[in-house]
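To: structure desk
From: M.T.
Subject: fold request, one chain
Message: Could you run this one when you get a chance? Sequence is below, nothing fancy, just the single chain.
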Amino acid sequence: MLKNILLSGLILFFIWACAGEDSLGTDTTPPDNPNLVEHLGDTGDIFGIDTLNFYNIYGNEMNGIDALPEGDWIRIQWEHPLDNDLDFAQIFRFSLQENIVTKIDSISFPHQDEYIDKYGSLIGKDWFYFIKIFDTSGNFAISDSVCYNLLNKPVLIEPPDNNEPMPLDSLHFKWWDDQNVLTFRLLLFDSNYDIIWQYEPTGQPNAGSAYEIEYDGPSIQPQQILWRVDAFGYTMTHEVEDKWHTVFSGSESEERRLNFR
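Reply: Done. Structure tokens follow.
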């Protein structure tokens, strides 16, 4: 309880201490509160009989706060407010492990609806984010908080990037196991990011060993495909500022290319 009270006090301090300049005009109406998007799901999730692929639905993986294949980073997303005089936003984060609220960046806001946190070591902590947006008159509004726990990326072994599989050869995918991961998901995409095949191993290799999965999907026509492995860990719940938050954990490996001739 004391920990929660101290954290709430820190958040309130940063909200008011980091206010912008005094109002520059007669407009005293604050913007609408921005709505950060919580983690909505993961590529390959199955709802009913359909496999969900956020790439295809939105043209980008618009599934809320999540990991990225490009690095050990966390992306946050928000529904853009309708105000037409927005100026900039301040990005804040804190972790339950450290109880330190930090303003990590200020960004131009009018046409932006996501932010990628690349600062410091993000792995293994329950990260919470909120943003504070300002209009051109200095009025501000504050979002809710969203959270995520970033795991180590799955380490791919083979096939190597830009490999050219032979038509009659069997195709195997290998990556190292990780004791902090509950579930892995192997994903294959075509060049449009349509899912060709996915597989979730149900067993585990021996400690310190690697997963090796033989491709058992549809025939692949000559094209370049992409593959990666997503990892998922424990889901936890935490109370922050009298609100319960579900903290999902996961990561995405690098994406590798396969060239079928």
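Reply (cont.): The domain at 156-260 is CATH 2.60.40 (Immunoglobulin-like). Let me know if you need anything else for the meeting.
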